[in-house]
Amino acid sequence: MKPFQKAYIPQTEIDLLRAALQGKSLTFFEMYLGPNPSPERITTYIESVIKDSLQDEVWKNDVYQVAKRIVDVPAFQTQVVQLSIKRIDRKPCRDWRDFQAIKNQLVGPECEGCELFPAESRVIDSANQYFIWVLTDPAIRFPFGIDEGKSIRSEEALGKSKNQPFSKT
User: Fold this and answer.
1) Please, are residues 100 and 3 in contact by the beta-carbon 8 Å criterion?
2) Cα(102)–Cα(159) distance, rounded to whole angstroms?
3) Predicted confidence band at 153 (pLDDT cuts at 50, 70, 90)?
4) What is the CA radius of gyration of the chain?
5) Is the pLDDT of residue 122 over 90?
6) Please, what is the end-to-end C-alpha distance for the chain in angstroms?
7) Which residues make Cβ contacts (< 8 Å) with residue 101, sequence separation at least 6?
């Protein structure tokens, strides 16, 4: 995986997003806006989605496109970086090492991040898109996780476990 470079969302992709949203059913908008939203409210919602996506910082490499957005989180009394990750070819992705490298490159190697598996009532599953929320302060740690005070990286099997080889690139 090559290093990330700053990128932008081309107007054609923005136009495709707008057209895709405009083609959605009333039921789709009711999930976000409640029962029977007016056409004006739907239009306002679509434009707010477009505006939000244009405010994101976009990064690309040879495999991934990542939208980076800073979000205030009062519960942590800090900000987090929301990383929205998708493959450029839009196929599913699930490589932990890639996601760790993305977090390290775009936020910082000592900043902790997590992926949320939400309550079913909060699920949004409309694309092969993944989100990691990363604390911006490297001194803050989540109050959960494995903490044995060391970093262990090994290609050697432990019992029946297997690990993929480390990339040499």
Assistant:
1) no
2) 30
3) low
4) 19
5) no
6) 7
7) 1
Here the tokens at position 28 are: 């789709």
Residue in the block written with tokens 């990383």: 83
Identify the helix (H) or strand (E) that includes residue 59.
strand 57-60
Q: Which tens digits make up the pLDDT trace of 32-76?
A: 899 999 999 999 999 998 998 888 999 999 999 999 999 988 887
CB 126 within 8 A of CB 86: no
pTM of the complete model beyond 0.70: yes
Report which secondary-structure segment, H or E, holds 52.
Answer: helix 39-55
Structure tokens at 106: 């775009």
Helix count (H) and strand count (E) of the chain? 4, 6
Query: Cα–Cα distance between 92 and 99 in angstroms, integer?
Result: 13
Determine the 3-state secondary structure of 96 from DSSP: helix
DSSP 8-state class, residue 57: E
Compute the distance between CA of residue 52 and CA of residue 83 in angstroms, rounded to an integer.
14
Q: What's at 160, amino acid-wise?
A: K
Give the residue from 146, 143, 165, 142 showing the smallest Cα distance to 154.
Answer: 165
Which CB contacts under 8 angstroms, 24+ apart, belong to 149-157? Answer: none
